[in-house]
Amino acid sequence: RFLNVIILTTITLSISCKDSSTESPAIDYGQLIPLAVNNMWSYKIEVYDSLGVIIDSREELHTIIRDTIISGEKWYRYNIPDTYYANRANGYYKYAGSAILEYKYPTNVGDTIITSDGLRREVVSTNKSIIVNNVSYTTYQFKENYQTGTLDIYWEYYIAPNIGQVRFNAYRRNAQSQYYLRLKFDLIEYKLK
Hints:
- The chain is mainly beta.
- The chain has a 12-stranded antiparallel beta sheet with strand order 6-5-4-3-2-1-12-11-10-9-8-7, with no helix packed on it.
- The chain starts with a helix and ends with a strand.
- A hairpin with a 2-residue loop joins strand 8 (120-132) and strand 9.
- The longest helix has 15 residues, at 2-16.
- It is globular.
- The protein has one helix spanning 2-16; strands at residues 40-48, 54-70, 73-78, 84-88, 91-95, 99-104, 112-114, 120-132, 135-148, 151-160, 164-173, 179-191.
């Protein structure tokens, strides 16, 4: 008799809890750039002259060194730069006296935001396949331009969701009005908690 009550209760609960709506369940996109203390990304940085010759090469380690609570929300600080960041439901934010959206996520091609530096950042692709150090990544590609006086540059950011930035390219316009690769960050390795 006790077993019959349990079976009947289980059936009743499963029927009453069944979702009869036709809506698709919400998609969990995870985090564009995963944030946790001790997450680490190692990059190879190359600087080029206008002829494409490497004039500087080094490695740089980006580590999340601590977290803190600002206005009831957890923010994370990297060793480089000395700024706090957080993921929210609509993207990746930088704290600069207030929360400023740095990367909209999830996002669509053509979406734009104004960054904390006042620059227009546009989504170029949401599924750009690139190979960095013999590893294939599917990335979101963002682009922003900066022009002042004779300085004309643009940046490309390639970010693999739930991994982080895997490539960064900076291009500069030369005297012949052609862009050339000036700076490149390529992911060497990463460790996530």
